[in-house]
Amino acid sequence: MIIAATPRPPLHGTDGLPPLVRRARLHDAPALHALSLAFIRSGALRPRSIDHYLAHAGEFILATGRGHSSLLGALALSDEGDGAAVLYNFCVARGNQGRGLGAALLRAALADARSRRVREVFTATTGGAGFFRRHGFAPAGPGRAPAAWAGALDPARGSQVLSRRL
Question: Taking the model in full, what pTM does it have?
């Protein structure tokens, strides 16, 4: 018996063109902040001020539309030293979810981490961890995550800490 898989929607933005995945620049900070607000309001992301996005713009990787400058998704990769890095502020605009943008952003972040000789990448999620598990992440054992980052997680949010060795 042959079972045909349901085809995934193409990796395109709402403008119909393939996205451009690139490093954020300082002028992207207001759009990063605006994209994150809906996820902050829902509780999926921790609140961050526009000043955070300005100060850490270089940590962010973006997916933008090619036909115009719309921000489709973003995530940040913070180098925590000792071969560890942290993914945070991972979000894809609602109208663009389920099209492979998150996977494209994650691939770019992991490639960036490898190029910096990072040995393990950590993240925390309040939602289901299925996406991260499909991409090789597993629950991180106690004490493995960078101490300063792990100590800043709010226990009331119920975050699950995951990691992936590179």
Answer: 0.85
